[in-house]
Design goal:
With 397 residues, the protein is an alpha+beta fold. The chain has two domains: 209 residues, Ribosomal Protein S5, domain 2, CATH 3.30.230.10; 174 residues, GHMP kinase, C-terminal domain (Alpha-Beta Plaits). Helix content is 40%, strand content 22%. Strands 1, 2, 3, 4, 5, 6, 7 and 12 form an eight-stranded mixed sheet that branches. A four-stranded antiparallel sheet has the order 9-10-8-11. A hairpin with a 2-residue loop joins strand 3 and strand 4. Helix 3 crosses helix 5 and helix 9 packs antiparallel against helix 10. The longest helix is centred in the C-terminal third of the chain and has 27 residues. The radius of gyration is 21 Å and the shape is globular. It starts with 5 loop residues before the first helix and ends with a strand. The relative contact order is 0.17. Bound molecules: alpha-D-galactopyranose.
């Protein structure tokens, strides 16, 4: 059930022509991502192992000569029209005056101009039309896909001298300051740097990356996404609270970030903080180690050997970090009971999707088992599909 992205590329061009009355000059796109392992470690300067997926957001772009930026999306009929030199006044203070989705591309435009030291008056105006097949609210980073597509399109059009890490940072800044979600940099880096059949092993402190071969197909494995349909937002609620707990734990131990805490420090921490903060920290510290163990296991033994690490990661998110929900636990448990090699929730939590690593000939069994388990629990039916590790942001045409 792997989907392709040609329809959303065509849809972006068609939307551009319809709403702006001209042919687009080009289209660019960026993917969503699945995180294989390493959850809530990115903003703790830790390790993550995501990969880009085949679902992409496409943007069709055309230049205009009046210094304005107009954005429109297939999800929203309204064209949002802003002067480039108004962006500084909009972000972050007046972001609420914009439709929520428009804060992503306009926030990226704002962050790119600032990062490159480009005066808005010297950048050419642009029209941007977006279409996407990245499921929204599924924990697959539909937002990083919008940010990434915008970043590569504008960086090329404006001739900015920014590398891919700088583009990822502009995406994160848009997310943090233009949208108001206190997220880390994993999603933007995965969307920028994705590679076919590979994951990106990222050190979120140095931002150094290594490409890690996944070899799912050679091992006869598929990566199945079970989208629970439970929607979440990282701009409100639990995500920020978890981040604050991590910062409290680091402060109690006198280190800059939880990256600097080892398993051996945990007994000492137990005397310094309350039980909830302790368990939040324990998740991050053990999860960092699981990422390192997963990278080593992939390299030495291949993907069939990482199942226990995925399962341990899920248990840690469920019990210590407390970001799972019953639907995610049901997805993981039913997939494992039906023979998945490993399974865990992926992304920020409180909803979204679980992933299961499954032998090719058991995908239907796992799909049926998860569907039946949701029905038995009285949950709405999940959406289940396979994903393939795919290339990062690029110009399409
Ligand atoms: C969301 C955020 C990421 C990361 C994950 C949890 O996807 O955008 O920065 O923190 O949650 O690992």
């Amino acid at each position: 059930m792997t989907t392709t992205d040609t329809r959303s590329a065509d849809a972006a061009r068609a939307l551009f022509a319809e709403r702006f009355g001209a042919e687009a000059a080009g289209t660019w796109s960026a993917p969503g991502r699945v995180n294989l392992i390493g959850e809530h470690t990115d903003y703790n300067d830790g390790f993550v192992l995501p990969f880009a997926i085949q679902h992409r957001t496409h943007v069709a772009l055309g230049a205009r000569d009046d210094g304005r930026i107009r954005v429109v999306s297939a999800f929203d009929a309204q064209v949002v029209d802003v002067a480039l030199d108004e962006l500084d006044a909009l972000f972050p203070e007046r972001r609420d005056s914009l439709p929520e989705w428009a804060r992503y591309p306009l926030g990226v435009a704002w962050a790119l101009l600032a990062a490159s030291g480009t005066a808005p008056s010297s950048a050419i105006g642009v029209d941007l039309a977006f279409a996407s097949d990245v499921p929204v609210g599924a924990g697959l980073s539909s937002s990083a896909a919008i940010e990434g597509a915008t970043a590569v399109a504008l960086a090329e059009t404006w001739g900015l001298d920014l590398d891919r890490v700088a583009l990822a940072k502009a995406g994160r800044r848009a997310e943090n300051e233009a949208v108001g979600a206190p997220t880390g940099i994993m999603d933007q880096m995965a969307s920028m740097l994705g590679r076919t059949d590979s994951a990106i092993f990222l050190d979120c402190r140095s931002l150094e990356t290594q490409v890690v071969d996944l070899g799912f197909a050679d091992a006869g494995l598929e990566l199945v996404v079970i989208d629970t349909g439970v929607k979440h937002s990282h701009a409100t609620g639990g995500y920020g609270e978890r981040r604050a707990a991590c910062e409290r734990g680091a402060a109690a131990l006198g280190v800059p970030a939880l990256r600097d805490v080892t398993l051996g420090d945990l007994p000492r921490l137990a005397d310094l903080v309350d039980d909830v903060t302790f368990r939040r920290v324990r998740h991050v510290v053990t999860e960092n180690q699981r990422v390192l163990d997963t990278v080593r296991t992939l390299r030495e033994q291949g993907p069939a050997a990482i199942g226990d690490l995925l399962v341990a990661s899920h248990a840690s998110m469920r019990d210590d970090f407390e970001i799972s929900v019953p639907e995610l636990d049901t997805a993981v448990e039913s997939a494992l009971a039906a023979g998945a090699v490993g399974a865990r929730m992926t992304g920020g939590g409180f909803g979204g999707a679980a992933i299961a690593l499954v032998a090719h000939d058991r995908v239907q069994t796992v799909t049926d088992a998860a569907t039946a388990a949701f029905e038995a629990s009285g949950f709405a039916a999940p959406t289940i599909f396979t994903v393939a590790p795919s290339p990062g942001a690029a110009r399409d045409a």
